[in-house]
Amino acid sequence: MRFVFKPNTSRLERLARTTLLTAALVSATGCATQQDPWLTGRWVDLTHSFSAATVYWPTSTPFRLEPVFVGTTAKGYHYEAYEFRAAEHGGTHLDAPNHFSDNAPAVDQIPLDRLIGPAVVIDVSSKAVENREYRASLDDLAAWEKDHGKIPEQAIVLVRTGYDRFWPDPARYLGTAERGEAAVAKLHFPGLDPDAARWLVEQRRVKAVGLDTASIDYGQSSHFETHRILSQKRIPIFENVARLGELPAAGAIVMALPMKIEGGSGAPLRIIAWVPEKDR
């Protein structure tokens, strides 16, 4: 979707004609009146839809949508209502810091400014497609900075492996279509190297990290070091993100809002990005 405004339109009029979401992003990122990124651009939906086909961890309860009523009521009007059930961690979702760190914030305790900010996209898809065990490394971060400059503090770093192309085929996306505890040992997909995660939180002080696979730790991880490093620093994690290939390496703004589950260790996530026209 593209928004185009007349040059002489005042700032208040422009905001009134955009969505409330745009206004929230402007506030969160401190955009000034003179800046142009909000005048033209497009939204990119980085979220996989939830359905019976949604990919979940082999030991997790998959998504189910069951009808309560669908049809015409006795009074002659159409009505639909459903109930859904699912594990916290599955589909496009957020890992809260308490998922891997004691006494850390739960989903409902994560500050909003941790979930909104400028996006940095680290593209390792050419390496990951050749190696299902690939972990985005310090070298990949250094290569990004060589091309684009220093990763800014308080950025949201998104690692693109390209594995969203396999969604929702679990055999290709996860490395196995099997379910149950025994299937966990058969998981094969890329992730983020623990040393790279540590560097991001200590040297660049990022506010959140995400990627387009089922876990920030690669599939064969058994100690979940990257999860632990990020969680101990209270960094939210976004997993199973979609369409990162539609974002520029820098310049987009991300908003990632989870279902606000009190005390939850994770939640379904609606994550979107605004791509200014100049970065298309």
Question: Overview of this structure, please?
Answer:
The chain is of the alpha/beta class. It is 19% helix and 25% strand. Helix 6 (194-203) runs parallel beside helix 7. The longest helix has 11 residues, at 138-148. Residues 1-20 and 30-34 have low confidence and may be disordered.
Question: How do the strands and helices of this protein lay out in sequence?
Answer:
Layout: H1 11-17, H2 20-29, E1 41-45, E2 64-72, E3 78-85, E4 93-95, E5 116-123, H3 125-128, E6 135-136, H4 138-148, E7 156-160, H5 170-173, E8 191-192, H6 194-203, E9 208-211, H7 225-232, E10 237-239, E11 250-258, E12 266-276
Parallel strand pairs: 5-7, 6-8, 7-9, 9-10
Antiparallel strand pairs: 1-12, 2-3, 4-10, 4-12, 5-11, 11-12
What characteristics describe this protein?
single chain; 280 residues; 7-stranded mixed β-barrel; two-stranded antiparallel ribbon; 19% helix; globular; disordered N terminus
